[in-house]
C-alpha cells in the first residue's frame, strides 16, 4: 500500500492533549514535515489536522492532530466537539503531556479505554527536565506505556525520542492492522473464482467502479484468486460459459432478486454490502439487528445512515429504495431520518431500527463504535445489504457464505419460535379460562 491507500483502510492514530503541550510539533517530527502550524500561543490548532503516511511495518497510517479540549468559550466548545468526534475513529490514541498528569489526561485515557482503544503516553519536552515521579507512578498504576520525546528538537533525529515513539506505535497497534483481514478472498481461495455482479446504473460513477467493488477485486487478486466482473443482465450467460461453477457470486444489493434467480442454488451468494458488514463492522450483531424489521409497525422511526456524503439521485438506495422496500414489508408508513458522513445523532433512543451502509469510507473502529452506541441505546442496528435481503425474503441465502452469522440467525429464530409458543399457550390458556367462566355463568 502507498499514499493512494484509501483513508478508511489506514490505521487512525489520534493525538490528544492539553493546549500547547507540543501535539503539533510531535506530528511534524513524526512525519518529518511541516504538517501542522506550531506556535507558542495556546489554541493554535483549531480543527483536527490529518496526515497520511507510510509507517513500516504497520503500513499506511493516518495521524490526526487535535485541538486541546481543555478549552472554553463558544469557539472553544466547537474545538472540543470536533476533537471528541476523533475519539470515535481512533484506532490508537497518543496522549501528549509536558509532564503534567491530572484530571484532564485521566478523562482522555478513560474516553479511549471506554472504546477499547490502545493508548501510548508521550511525555514531551523531556529536554526541559524529567517528568514528575507522581506522573510516572500514575502511568505505571494505569499500565499505560510511555515514551519521552523532545519533539521541537528536530535537528537531532536520534535523540528526540521519535524513533522510540515509532517503535511504540508498532508494538501497540491493533493486531488487525498487522494482519489485515480479507474482504472476500478467504471465502474463495487461491486458484478459485468469484463472479462479481456490478450493475451499471445511474448511481455507478462515470468511468469507474465504486470503492467496495474495487477493493474486493484487489483483495481477490492479492490472494491469488480469480474474478469475473459482469452486469446483472449478463450473469446467466456468463455462468453458462464457465466449465465449473464459481466458488462465490457477489452482487450489488440492489440487484439481489435477479441475481438470486440467475445463480444456481448450490453456488453461495452474497452482496458487497454484507461483505463490508463483516470487514468494517460486526456481521453477527448486524444480522441479529435485521430481525427488528419484523417488529416494525406503522409510525415507527428508522434511521438511515450513510458513511459518505454522495450526491443523491432519483433512485438513491438509502433515500428511496430501502425506505420503499421497508414500507412495503411493514405494510404501513414509517418515519425515516437520513444522515450522511459524520452527522450522526447523539440520541438514538427515538429510533426503532438503524440501517447503516457498508461503511467503506469509514475505518473499522468508527463503524464498531456506531454499533456499540446503538447497543448502549438498546436500538437494533443492521446494514443496507442485510436489510434488502431480509425485506426481499432471501436472507438465509445471502448469509450462506457466513456460517457463524447464519447460525446466530437460525438460533434467534428458534428462540423467537419458542417465545411465540409460550405466549400462544398462555393466551390459549387464558382464553380457555375465560370461556369456562362464561360457561359457568
From TrEMBL:
GO terms for biological process: tRNA methylation; tRNA wobble uridine modification. It comes from the Bacteria. One of its GO terms (molecular function) is GTP binding. Residues 183-281 form the Hydrogen maturase F dimerization domain. Pfam families: HydF_dimer, HydF_tetramer, MMR_HSR1. PANTHER family: TRANSLATION INITIATION FACTOR IF-2, TRNA MODIFICATION GTPASE GTPBP3. This is [FeFe] hydrogenase H-cluster maturation GTPase HydF.
Amino acid at each position: 500500500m502507498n499514499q493512494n491507500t484509501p483513508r478508511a483502510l489506514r490505521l487512525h492514530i489520534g493525538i490528544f492533549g492539553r493546549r500547547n503541550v507540543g501535539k503539533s510539533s510531535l506530528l511534524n517530527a513524526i512525519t518529518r514535515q511541516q504538517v501542522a502550524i506550531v506556535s507558542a500561543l495556546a489554541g493554535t490548532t483549531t480543527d483536527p489536522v490529518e496526515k497520511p503516511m507510510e509507517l513500516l511495518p504497520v503500513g499506511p497510517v493516518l495521524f490526526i492532530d487535535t485541538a486541546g479540549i481543555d478549552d472554553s468559550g463558544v469557539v472553544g466548545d466547537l474545538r472540543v466537539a470536533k476533537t471528541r468526534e476523533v475519539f470515535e475513529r481512533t484506532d490508537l490514541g497518543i496522549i501528549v503531556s509536558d509532564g503534567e498528569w491530572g484530571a484532564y489526561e485521566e478523562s482522555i485515557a478513560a474516553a479511549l479505554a471506554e472504546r477499547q482503544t490502545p493508548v501510548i503516553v508521550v511525555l514531551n519536552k523531556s529536554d526541559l527536565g524529567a517528568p514528575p515521579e507522581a506522573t510516572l507512578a500514575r502511568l505505571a498504576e494505569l499500565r499505560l506505556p510511555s515514551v519521552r520525546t523532545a519533539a521541537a528538537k528536530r535537528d537531532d533525529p536520534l535523540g528526540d525520542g521519535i524513533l522510540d515513539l515509532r517503535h511504540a506505535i508498532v508494538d501497540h497497534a491493533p493486531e488487525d492492522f498487522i494482519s489485515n483481514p480479507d474482504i472476500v478472498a478467504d471465502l474463495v481461495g487461491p486458484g478459485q473464482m468469484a463472479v462479481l455482479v456490478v450493475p451499471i446504473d445511474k448511481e455507478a460513477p462515470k468511468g469507474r467502479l465504486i470503492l467496495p467493488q474495487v477493493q474486493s477485486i484487489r483483495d481477490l487478486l492479492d490472494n491469488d484468486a480469480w474474478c469475473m466482473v459482469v452486469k446483472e443482465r449478463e450473469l446467466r450467460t456468463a455462468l453458462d460459459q464457465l466449465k465449473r461453477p464459481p466458488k462465490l457470486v457477489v452482487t450489488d444489493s440492489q440487484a439481489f432478486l435477479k441475481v438470486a434467480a440467475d445463480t444456481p442454488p448450490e453456488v453461495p451468494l452474497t452482496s458487497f454490502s454484507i461483505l463490508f458488514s463483516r470487514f468494517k463492522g460486526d456481521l453477527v450483531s448486524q444480522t441479529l439487528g435485521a430481525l427488528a424489521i419484523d417488529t416494525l409497525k406503522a409510525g415507527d422511526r428508522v434511521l438511515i445512515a450513510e458513511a459518505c456524503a454522495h450526491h443523491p439521485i432519483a433512485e438513491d438506495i438509502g433515500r428511496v429504495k430501502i425506505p420503499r422496500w421497508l414500507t412495503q414489508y411493514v405494510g404501513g408508513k414509517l418515519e425515516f431520518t437520513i444522515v450522511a458522513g459524520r452527522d450522526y445523532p447523539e440520541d438514538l433512543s427515538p429510533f426503532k431500527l438503524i440501517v447503516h451502509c457498508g461503511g467503506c469510507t469509514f475505518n473499522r473502529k468508527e463503524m464498531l463504535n456506531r454499533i456499540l452506541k446503538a447497543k448502549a441505546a438498546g436500538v437494533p442496528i443492521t446494514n443496507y445489504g442485510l436489510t434488502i435481503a431480509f425485506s426481499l425474503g432471501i436472507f438465509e441465502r445471502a448469509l450462506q457464505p457466513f456460517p457463524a452469522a447464519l447460525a446466530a440467525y437460525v438460533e434467534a429464530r428458534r428462540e423467537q419460535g419458542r417465545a411465540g409458543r409460550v405466549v400462544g399457550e398462555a393466551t390459549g390458556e387464558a382464553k380457555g379460562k375465560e370461556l369456562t367462566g362464561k360457561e359457568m355463568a
